[in-house]
C-alpha cells in the first residue's frame, strides 16, 4: 500500500510488519495463527457458498455413499494451504495441493499420505486442476510482495458454473485475475459464472478465536520491545527482519523492491 508506506515514512515511526517477522527456518510466527485460521475458514466458507441458495453448484463437499465428493484445489502448500487441506479432508472432499517447492510437497506427503494429490505447480497442472474443481482456495504468499496471478480470466471461464473461489491471498493482491476485494457484509459476487470470495482479514469473522491466537503469538515480542526498545531488534534476528521503516527510510528489501522510488 503506497499511501500507507509514504505516511509511515514521513511520520518518523519505526514500523515492524507482522508478516515480515521471520524465524531462521523461514516460518512467520506472527502471521502463522492468522494463516491457520484463514486456511480453515477458507474451506468452511467455500462449503457454505457452494450451496445453491448462495449461488453455488449445490455440491456437498463430503458427498454421500453413492455420490462423488466435491473436489477442492488448493494453490499453495504453506500454512494456509495445509490447513485448508486438513479441513477439506475432514469434510470428506477430494483434495489436490499444488506448490512449487518439492521439499514442501514431500513434507505434506508425510502429513496426508495418499489422501491428498500433491502436484508440482505449473501452468498445465493448474489449468487441469482448476477447471475440474468445485472449490479453489488461493493460498499463495510471498512475504512482502504481491501475490502472482496463477488463475487468469481465461481459466476462470473454463470452471464449472457455480464453482467457488476463495482467495486468501487477496490481502497481497490475489492470485486470481477476476478476484477483487469484498467485505464481511457482502463477501461474494458472481463473475464468469463462478462465485468469488475476496474478503481481506478473514480471521475477522471469528474475532474471539483470532484475538486469543494473535495475543499468544505477539505478546513475547511486545515484551521484548517494551523492555529493550530498538535494541530488541538486534537481540532477536527474527524481530529485526520485521523492521520495514526506520529513520524515515524504507529498509526492508522486499518492500524496497515493490516501491523502489521510495528508497533514498
UniProtKB/TrEMBL annotation:
Example of a GO MF term: alanine dehydrogenase activity
CDD domains per record: L-AlaDH (cd05305)
Gene Ontology CC terms: plasma membrane
EC number per UniProt: 1.4.1.1
GO terms, biological process: L-alanine catabolic process
Pathway recorded for this protein: Amino-acid degradation; L-alanine degradation via dehydrogenase pathway; NH(3) and pyruvate from L-alanine: step 1/1
Domain Alanine dehydrogenase/pyridine nucleotide transhydrogenase NAD(H)-binding: residue ranges: 50-198
Xref: Gene3D superfamilies: NAD(P)-binding Rossmann-like Domain (3.40.50.720)
SMART domains: AlaDh_PNT_C
Record-linked InterPro entries: Ala_DH, Ala_DH/PNT_CS2, AlaDH/PNT_NAD(H)-bd, NAD(P)-bd_dom_sf
PROSITE patterns, per database record: ALADH_PNT_2
UniProt keywords, alphabetically: NAD, Oxidoreductase
Protein family according to the UniProt entry: Belongs to the AlaDH/PNT family.
PANTHER family: ALANINE DEHYDROGENASE
Protein name (Swiss-Prot/TrEMBL): alanine dehydrogenase
Protein source organism: uncultured Leptolyngbya sp
Amino acid at each position: 500500500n503506497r499511501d500507507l508506506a509514504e505516511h509511515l515514512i514521513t511520520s518518523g515511526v519505526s514500523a515492524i510488519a507482522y508478516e515480515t517477522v521471520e524465524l531462521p527456518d523461514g516460518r512467520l510466527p506472527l502471521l502463522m495463527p492468522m494463516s491457520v485460521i484463514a486456511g480453515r475458514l477458507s474451506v468452511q466458507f467455500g462449503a457454505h457458498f457452494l450451496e445453491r441458495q448462495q449461488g453455488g453448484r449445490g455440491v456437498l463437499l463430503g458427498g454421500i455413499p453413492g455420490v462423488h465428493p466435491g473436489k477442492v484445489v488448493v494453490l499453495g502448500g504453506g500454512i494456509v494451504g495445509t490447513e485448508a487441506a486438513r479441513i477439506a479432508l475432514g469434510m470428506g472432499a477430494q483434495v489436490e495441493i499444488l506448490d512449487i517447492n518439492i521439499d514442501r510437497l514431500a513434507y505434506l506427503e508425510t502429513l496426508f499420505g495418499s489422501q491428498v494429490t500433491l502436484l508440482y505447480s505449473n501452468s498445465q497442472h493448474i489449468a487441469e486442476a482448476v477447471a475440474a474443481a468445485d472449490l479453489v482456495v488461493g493460498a499463495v504468499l510471498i512475504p512482502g510482495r504481491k501475490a502472482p496471478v496463477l488463475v487468469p480470466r481465461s481459466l476462470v471461464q473454463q470452471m464449472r458454473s457455480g464453482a467457488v473461489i476463495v482467495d486468501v491471498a487477496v490481502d497481497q493482491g490475489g492470485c486470481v485475475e477476476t478476484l477483487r476485494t469484498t467485505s464481511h457484509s457482502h463477501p461474494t459476487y458472481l463473475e464468469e459464472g463462478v462465485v468469488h470470495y475476496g474478503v481481506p482479514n478473514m480471521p475477522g469473522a471469528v474475532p474471539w478465536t483470532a484475538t486469543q491466537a494473535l495475543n499468544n503469538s505477539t505478546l513475547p515480542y511486545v515484551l521484548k520491545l517494551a523492555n529493550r526498545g530498538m535494541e530488541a531488534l538486534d537481540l532477536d534476528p527474527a524481530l529485526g527482519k520485521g523492521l520495514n521503516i526506520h529513520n524515515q527510510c524504507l529498509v526492508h528489501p522486499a518492500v524496497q523492491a515493490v516501491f523502489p522510488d521510495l528508497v533514498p
